[in-house]
Design a protein that fits this description.
The complex is a heterodimer of chains A (324) and B (243). Chain A has helices at 5-32, 41-63, 83-107, 124-148, 160-181, 186-215, 223-227, 246-250, 257-271, 273-285, 288-312, and strands spanning 112-113, 122-123, 234-238. Chain A has 324 residues and is an all-alpha fold. Chain A has one domain (5-222, 242-320): Formate dehydrogenase/DMSO reductase fold (Up-down Bundle). In chain A, strand 1 and strand 2 form a beta hairpin. The longest helix of chain A is centred in the middle third of the chain and has 30 residues, at 186-215. In chain B, strand 8 (122-124) and strand 9 (129-131) form a beta hairpin. Chain B has one domain: Alpha-Beta Plaits (2-Layer Sandwich). The chains are: A mainly alpha (324), B alpha+beta (243). At the A-B interface, helix 3, helix 7, strand 3 and helix 8 of A face strand 3, strand 4, strand 5, helix 2 and helix 3 of B. Strand 3 of chain A pairs antiparallel with strand 4 of chain B.
Chain lengths: 324, 243
């Protein structure tokens, strides 16, 4: 497939924003049960603002993908059948919860709720945060399923696709949270840093699994089934247009196999070992610069990872467009 | 239930592209606006087409065969492009099974084109909406046209009648008969899309001639020859049997 930068930025930016929000709620939950000293409310409101700006940036990027952005509101209509439509609903819903969560913390308006025998006493913000977590994972699944549900794009049609989207988003979000937490407390930094390392390692495992899976993929469609002529030697002589068409542009990455391979190694380096090294060094030295560079390096790596994700997918329609 | 479709006879198609040009002519002149043509006489011409004819060479030289392969939307009975559309712009008509795009609802996200394994959808890069074969829906029901002309433009244009049009759910229709008798097959059956359009395979059209059919002979099979003479000395039936 042709990797569209609008979609690459959409998925990587909202992934980081979602991960960061998960980190914030994790911190609040930990301090709620007393495993962590309570943070001042500005930590959560600033963090939510950062998360929300990443989500808004992703949403803005997605509009560049549309031919008619002014009709984007229509895309919420078919949520019963379309994962894209579900994402279009889940993203603004999640954004509004992040906004409410940040606003409650900013106003420092945090009344206790529940406190009955059935439900233990909880703070309002934590309840909003839990709703946010549910929406956050819904959004991760919707984003991943947009690609995983297309059964003839065999590289994508696997449960590993939504799993990778989730883990890579959490990995970059927690790395960002680690860098962000250096402004507040050492305790938070090491908590987020530990989770960032865990999620990065988990993502390394699942992303490698998908790479291995895709390496041995056996394509179900061949030129024989595509045109229905049962002969082992079929060669295309013309594709019905001499100057290329939508079909020759949308489904090819347009780069050499060597370039594709080098992008794979670049992202494998930038997304996993380098950030792990930088986080490790940053945690032991408590150096903000190292942790910020860990996030930056990983984010650049994720752009390469998403580019590769699209470029690697081989659409069966390409069988019809092998030569001019 | 009706399912309108095309049946394309690969044995007859000569690859003249008359279906391509007539399709473009009809559909670029319709109420939905023109089909994009960018730089048509320049260096890199490109444009939106509903129908294209491709050419394949089958076999190894010198034993090759050229297959001309017209390719357009197959109007699948389980169209994978329809459920993925987030706006509902892509839909399959209940009454006749034609898969259509509502150009006023389409947001141009191209997701449906990713979901079509045949690459049958092309975006109009000027109007920024997804376009595809409509089976000339603005023509086949037009009662101001003579009845014989209420067919898709490509079908009318085909000089060799390689394209048939009709209801594939009606077992008595011309297209159903052609599929049944001519061994019609769908493309990429492995994905369960159940394309309504079918293709008829290449067939060997040979006449078998025997040598004696080439030289003129009277009564070559001796069908009307004289019966063998009987032995004049052999006894007659009357000699041994008395009535």
């Amino acid at each position: 497939m042709h990797p569209a930068f609008s979609v690459i930025f959409l998925t990587t930016l909202i992934g980081a924003g979602q991960g960061l929000f998960l980190a914030l709620v994790t911190a609040e939950a930990f301090s709620h049960i007393g495993a962590l000293t309570a943070q001042e409310h500005h930590f959560y409101s600033t963090g939510s603002l950062l998360s929300l700006s990443l989500l808004v940036a992703g949403l803005v990027a997605s509009f560049f993908h549309l031919g008619h952005p002014e009709r984007a509101w229509r895309s919420a209509a078919m949520w019963r059948t379309s994962w894209l439509s579900r994402e279009v609903i889940a993203l603004p819903a999640f954004m509004s919860i992040v906004f409410i969560y940040g606003l409650l913390h900013y106003l420092n308006w945090n009344p206790k709720v529940f406190g009955t025998t059935a439900l233990p006493e909880t703070s309002l913000t934590l309840m909003v945060g839990i709703v946010g977590i549910v929406l956050c994972f819904t959004l991760f699944i919707c984003t991943g399923m947009i690609y995983a549900c297309l059964k003839f794009l065999q590289e994508w049609h696997t449960p590993l696709t939504p799993i990778n989207y989730t883990l890579l988003g959490m990995s970059s979000g927690f790395t960002l949270a680690t860098a962000f937490a250096t402004q507040y407390s050492q305790e938070l930094t090491s908590l987020f840093g530990t989770w960032a390392i865990i999620f990065t390692l988990a993502a390394l495992l699942t992303r490698t699994a998908s790479l291995l899976r895709n390496k041995r993929i056996k394509y179900r469609s061949t030129l024989r089934t595509a045109i229905g002529v049962h002969h082992n030697n079929i060669q295309q002589q013309s594709q019905g247009s001499m100057g290329g068409s939508f079909n020759t542009r949308e489904y090819f990455h347009g780069m050499s196999a060597a370039f594709l391979k080098s992008v794979k190694w670049v992202f494998l380096l930038l997304v996993f070992p380098l950030p792990l090294l930088l986080i490790g060094m940053g945690l032991s030295n408590d150096a903000t610069a190292l942790l910020v560079s860990a996030f930056t390096v990983q984010y650049v790596g994720l752009i390469a990872e998403r580019w590769f994700f699209f470029a690697q997918a081989n659409h069966p329609q390409n069988l019809y467009y092998q030569t001019i | 239930m009706t399912q309108l479709a095309l049946v394309i006879d690969l044995n007859v198609c000569v690859g003249c592209h008359a279906c391509v040009t007539s399709c473009k002519q009809w559909n670029t002149s319709g109420a939905a606006g023109s089909l994009m043509d960018d730089n048509p006489y320049g260096k890199d011409p490109t444009g939106t087409f509903f129908n294209r004819v491709q050419t394949y060479e089958v076999g190894e030289f010198p034993n090759t065969e050229t297959v001309h392969f017209p390719k357009s939307c197959l109007h699948c009975e389980e169209p994978p492009c329809v459920p993925v559309c987030p706006t509902g712009a892509s839909y399959k008509r209940k009454e006749d099974g034609i898969v259509l795009v509502d150009y006023d609802k389409c947001i141009g996200c191209k997701y449906c084109s990713w979901a079509c394994p045949y690459g049958a959808r092309e975006i109009d890069e000027k109007q920024k909406v997804m376009k595809k074969c409509t089976l000339c829906v603005d023509r086949i029901y037009d009662e101001s046209l003579p009845e014989a002309e209420r067919k898709p433009a490509c079908v009318l244009a085909c000089p060799t009648s390689a394209r048939l049009f009709g209801d594939v759910h009606d077992p008595e229709s011309e297209v159903s008969q052609a599929i049944c008798e001519g061994g019609g097959y769908p493309l990429m059956p492995e994905w369960g899309t159940q394309p309504a359009n079918h293709y008829l395979p290449r067939r060997k059209t040979k006449i078998r001639l025997h040598e004696d059919e080439l030289t003129r002979a009277d009564n070559p099979l001796k069908k009307d020859g004289r019966l063998p003479r009987t032995d004049p000395d052999a006894p007659f039936l009357e000699d041994s049997v008395s009535w």
